[in-house]
Amino acid sequence: MAFSSTSSLPVMKQTKPDAERTLLNAVEDRYGGVKVDVEDSMDCNVYVSLLRDSITQWRKQGKKGVWIKLPIHLANLVEPTVKEGFRYHHAESDYLMLVYWIPETPDTLPANASHTVGIGAFVVNDNREVLVVQEKNGAFKGKDVWKFPTGVANQGEDICKAAIREVKEETDIDTEFVEILAFSQTHQTFYGKSDLFFVCMLRPLSSDINKQASEIEAAQWMPIEEYIAQPFNQKRESFKNIANICLRKSRRNYTGFSAVAMASSSGKKSYSYFNKLQLENENTN
């Protein structure tokens, strides 16, 4: 869920019988709530007073969700915020986001991101050899399994760019993206998150392997039939299906989804993935 600083609530003053109270700075989001970025250090008691008065004012204004972003250097304000009824929403390396639902209606604030995005890189050369690695860590450590280079897309990173980066990091092979061949969804993976895993075909632009010392035990170019024949691939349905898709693609009788750059509704560059070849053929007929 994206938030836009469409309008700013200035530092507001509320007259009470005995004193004037200053409220927390906030910006309205487009969903009837407010977002607060706390940046300056303050005494906990002062902060709690400001927070209580602010919630009272936002309730009168009919606001719904409250998002409070606390940078890591203000970790001392986390406990008092929670004691005022806020809950954790998500955290990054430098901040914690807490949320609070004001009205006495069902809470409709969106949950934290539910998925990670993983990639597997099917890199095949003109000799029908596949780039494969053995890992030093993880589930495949010590199992003598040759697998595709794999990894996780970074925040804000396109799938096509993530595949190219992971291959470069693990093997030092330069590539260009061709297609997404398949994807899968699994649940309850890393810390309970779901995972979307995309198998991407890439074309190698270099051939000399220089493996990543910290993560990769070995790397090589392997004939595709030898890769597919590995017992590990044959005994596991999901791996067998992917191997067979890659084999068919190497024989040019399978078409995946190309990356097509376009502008999003907000004007930002993005990629759509679809069967571009079939669409172009249909448009010419």
In terms of DSSP E residues, the strand content is 25-35%
Largest sheet data: 6 strands, mixed
Which outline best applies? Answer: elongated
CATH topology of the largest domain: Nucleoside Triphosphate Pyrophosphohydrolase
Can you list the strand order of the major beta sheet?
1-4-5-6-8-7
| Low-confidence residue ranges | 1-19
Level-1 CATH class name of the largest domain: Alpha Beta
- Output the radius of gyration: 26 Å
Query: In angstroms, what separates the terminal alpha carbons?
Result: 41 Å
Separate helix tally: 7
Helix and strand run:
EEEEEHEHEEEEEHEEEHHHEEH
The chain-level mean pLDDT equals: 88
CATH superfamily of the largest domain: Nucleoside Triphosphate Pyrophosphohydrolase
Q: What's the count of strands?
A: 16
Number of domains: 2
Q: What is the percent of helical residues?
A: 10-25%
The chain-level structural class is alpha+beta
